[in-house]
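New here. Your pick:
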Amino acid sequence: MKKIFYTCAFLSCFGGWASAQDIYKVEMLSGSDLDGDARYVGMGGAMSALGANLSAMSTNPASTGLYRRSDISITAGLTSQPDGSHIYSNGQVLGADKTRGVFNQAGFVYSLNTGNTSGVKFVNLGFNYKRSRNLKQFIGLNNVPTANGLSQSWQMRNLAIGMDDYWLDLGYEQDRDYTTPLAVLGYDTYMIDAKVDDNNKIVDYYQSNATKYNYNRAQWGGLHECDFNMSMNVNERIYVGFTMGIYYVNTHNILLYGEELVDNTGATGDYNTYQEEVMTGVGYDGKLGVIVRPVEESPFRLGFAITTPTAYDLESRSYLSMTSPYCDDNNPNGTFADVDITNRYRIRTPWKLNISAATTFGSLVAVDAEYEWQNYASAAVRYDDGESYDYWGGSNFSTDAGIEQEVNRWMKNVHTFRIGAEVRASKEFSLRFGYNYVSSPFDKNAYLNLFADGPSYYYATNTDYVNLGAIHRATIGLGYTYKHFYFDATYQHQLQDATVYAFHYNDDRFSNTNVLPGEDIELHRNNFQMTLGFRF
């Protein structure tokens, strides 16, 4: 390829740029694992109507209203990802171990007997921490062949077209500001090269060709939830509660992507990118719930709960570097370019509605079943517009309409079904069984649209995306009680399939059809948890 080299202060072009928000970050912050204390997990998370459980205050705050004694517990365990592996970068070992320890839960409820015989009999105050979502995983795809020379540079060529359908001149700063960091780095490393007419006007970009690619992504960190709860028992018939949730986000992603390039003579060379992103932030939501016993003589109860969207205030820092075998007179051994960028934005997750029913059969069997609905149409993304300020001197945030259109187009309402049963084998021992199903949050044709009509178009440093399938979880648990102490243990097996795309390309840059085939993977997990508790 003929190379044209322009001198440009690269970092100055991106000093105010930022890593992008997208529909996959919306899902990451909206979903949750089946986690908490071992009894809750052993029941498949179906404790919202049975109540008297610390972790259930996050799904139905009224569940703690059934406590008549105070309770304190702590939970830890092991998580295993069967396909866990490692990747290596700069001498560091990255990736997801197959088995690792996890701190799952800690909390308490203080139960106050009011002595009232005809009204509010108990007022309970509670706090519970649980790891809402464990994001540690590894995805590795190596020596994946590409058809017809398909390369990520083909996507870069598409990104070199301005939103008004004209070819950008990426040698000039003003045009570089109208595309993504990926396209600019591709230009600076000669992965794409300008094609000009007799008037030296750019009419197209040459692209590179690849024979195969390697894709290795390591991710760790997660979402941590702290719930502050207040509930009441009214005449042993109605239980009401409110929970305020505070969330802490800390995630870390590293992607190593590379291609074997080939030119028209058959010579090969290596193209590689290194992308790293750290995201931190806090979020807040509110939960309101009620449990009723319609018939005084019956243990049957119904539960209803609503959870407001979680409002996250987030900050991310993203780094992208690129190397290619192409060179010019100043870089005879290939070229390298990189960028380090930060961003602040806000994400509002969907509303949730939970409906549950439960009953007991004597003192031997307890059963709970529930359904939860999550409405992604209510999700929203806002970005720091960098132009206006509120009265307190902080930045104002504007709606990212492009991403919200993508949410409405490609994200589906999520339906969660939980069912659990507890069998008391003796006064001391109990057996528990549970099943938990969560539908896929994505349409099967969902993709990471770098041409969304919004600011994220200019900020994205990653091109890969993972379309998650439905989750099936089966659990089994054991409980032992001795006087005031109790010990619970549970095993959870989670099945989930997904499809990974290293990037998205189509001749029609606005098409949702990806010419690059997706790679099917399994994100299965095994969890073992133990809880030690004390009731008084």
